Amino acid sequence: MPETMLCGVTLKNPVIAASGTFGFGAEYGRLFDVSKLGAICTKGLTLHPREGNPGMRVWETPAGMMNSIGLQNPGIPAFLEHELPRMRTMGTAIIANVGGGDLEEYVEGVRLLSEAESIDIIELNISCPNVHEGGMAFGIKANVAAGVVAAVRRVCRKPLMVKLSPNAENIADMAVACERAGADAVSLVNAFNALAIDIHARKPVFDNVTAGLSGPAIKPIALRMVWEAAHAVRIPVVGIGGITTWQDAVEFLMAGATAVQVGTATFVKPTAMLDIVDGLERYCAAEPLTRL
Ligand SMILES: Cc1cc2nc3c(=O)[nH]c(=O)nc-3n(C[C@H](O)[C@H](O)[C@H](O)COP(=O)(O)O)c2cc1C
User: Fold this and answer.
1) Does residue 238 belong to any structural domain of this protein?
2) What CATH number is given to the structural domain containing 112?
3) Is 265 within the bounds of a domain?
4) Neighbours of 51 (CB within 10 A)
5) Cα–Cα dist 191/181, whole Å
6) Distance between CA atoms of residues 127 and 164, nearest Å
7) Residue at 203 is within a domain
8) Among residues 37, 180, 198, 279, which is most buried (max CB within 10 A)?
9) Ligand 1 pocket test target in 15, 16, 21, 59 with most atoms within 8 Å of CB
10) Do the domain assignments include residue 291?
11) In the annotation, is 7 catalytic?
């Protein structure tokens, strides 16, 4: 597979480990050569450490999984001190995924991350609850998302990729709003809002009631959203959602994605991304990869 240029950063290939499914790379580094990946997205980072949600955190579903981790992470200062130096030795590009409870936390978090030399791209996760908006997520309304992107853009000295929620009112409008507010790329999608009920306990499986659905179950919807976003903006689009095989990755690239992220598939087969890289290489050597 030829090198991929994403926001001015050269990736060895277009296959990226999705945020929250690869930690900071250390555990998987014991299983395979992570330098073969195009990039690693960190677990979602927030300015302050977060313990995450109580109760059930992951739940298997037919053709997918649900999660309610609650952005458990050590906080950005601890990440910069303890995790980033180790990530830097992994031989692949580093994308720092950042979340926040409110606008100030986003801005301060991005400012700190953007000072770290070895971070290549900042991925802004706008699917977190927005306490200033009465619990509504930043990622639902295009004008609210544009506000946070513009505020972060002012302090961000790295390429800024905005990760869109599939729960957005209109995904193409959302992508355009982020582009206009200063995003260098958009990545989509995050997990879908979903519900599971324990029929014996007669209550929702998750303490938070709803949780995020990911995996093959969401792939056709994610693919449609990537298609719509890619046809609405000029900035690169990174495709995410249920990608499990190299054929899935080809579909996203044909739909207009510049690169892809793989999440849930890694839980099923830790080396799934290597298979995807190999398959893409063979496909591209045999036939042209055309964008539809
Ligand atoms: C256990 C788990 C934790 C996740 N944590 C994050 C996170 O911290 N930040 C984020 O932007 N996305 C997070 N995601 C979403 C994934 O990065 C990805 O967008 C989503 O799972 C869809 O891709 P997939 O179907 O390949 O898993 C998480 C997903 C899972 C399954």
Assistant:
1) yes
2) 3.20.20.70
3) yes
4) 9
5) 23
6) 7
7) no
8) 37
9) 21
10) no
11) no
